[in-house]
Design a protein that fits this description.
- Helix content is 37%, strand content 16%.
- With 199 residues, the protein is of the alpha/beta class.
Length: 199
């Protein structure tokens, strides 16, 4: 059972990201402020839901949330600043996009770069503990999946419509065959010998 809040008297925003471990594409974060009385039987950590369940929950979360925001950091910036910093930066962008400022941030994970003038608490596996973080995980995942579908249309040989840029066996074999494309994260060790750019 997901907790409705961490501190009863705070306006809490749950924050999570998607795509941190991917070989290609952006990292996407979401921040969500839910009403304290928000409940939905499907709401859970996005990794425990099917794509259809996540897609069904997204418009409900967007409609019922007090506020929500999305942050995106692309593959080029990930390569420049590293994936951990990029994940935090995406979260900061998502928080900045909130039309209402929260008083407390609930962060999924064990580390965070403090956001100016807002307190935060980190929670390992927080997306399975708090409703607002679970909602953020669903928005981050569905927005990122949508972006990867668009990139798949440009480079269908990598199967991003199925693997979403993660390092599946099929994705690795496609890299071996076709080399890396412009959307691959070059700072990641993707193969024992990196392929050449395939524009």
């Amino acid at each position: 059972m997901l907790a409705a809040y961490y501190k009863k008297n705070e306006l809490e925003a749950g924050c999570d990201e998607a795509g941190r471990g991917c070989y290609a594409g952006p990292v996407v974060a979401a921040a969500v402020i839910l009403p304290k009385n928000f409940k939905h039987p499907l709401l859970n950590d996005s990794k425990k839901l099917s794509a259809a369940q996540r897609d069904a929950l997204r418009p409900i979360i967007e409609e019922k949330a007090i506020a929500w925001g999305i942050g995106v950091i692309d593959h080029e910036e990930i390569d420049k600043i590293n994936i951990l910093k990029a994940s935090f930066k995406a979260m900061h962008h998502a928080i900045a996009a909130l039309p209402q400022k929260p008083s407390l941030l609930l962060i999924d994970g064990n580390r965070f770069v403090p956001y100016p003038s807002i307190k935060h608490h980190c929670f390992v596996k927080g997306d399975g503990r708090f409703a607002s973080i679970a909602a953020a995980s669903i928005l981050a995942k569905t927005y990122r999946d949508q972006l990867m579908q668009l990139l798949h249309a440009e480079f269908p040989q990598y199967g991003w419509d199925r693997n979403k840029g993660y390092g599946t066996e099929a994705h690795r074999k496609a890299i071996e065959k076709h080399g890396l494309c412009t959307y691959h994260r070059k700072s990641f060790r993707l193969l024992p010998q990196q392929g050449e750019l395939d524009y």
